[in-house]
């Protein structure tokens, strides 16, 4: 079964190694699960990015 974690950091942190440009990050969303499932993890990631977009 999939496991989800949503973390809100107290202070923004620059994640230089994880992103193309060094921007401060305050929210982290992690979704892990088995590869043999009917869940489309890519679409879940796209939906979360749309919800968390700063525009």
TrEMBL record:
Q: Which organism is it from?
A: Cirrhinus mrigala
Its protein name is Band 3 cytoplasmic domain-containing protein
Q: What InterPro entries does the database record attribute to this sequence?
A: Band3_cytoplasmic_dom, HCO3_transpt_euk, PTrfase/Anion_transptr
- Tell me where in this chain the Band 3 cytoplasmic domain is found: 1-55
- Spell out the Pfam families in the cross-references: Band_3_cyto
**What PANTHER family is this protein classified in?**
ANION EXCHANGE PROTEIN, BAND 3 ANION TRANSPORT PROTEIN
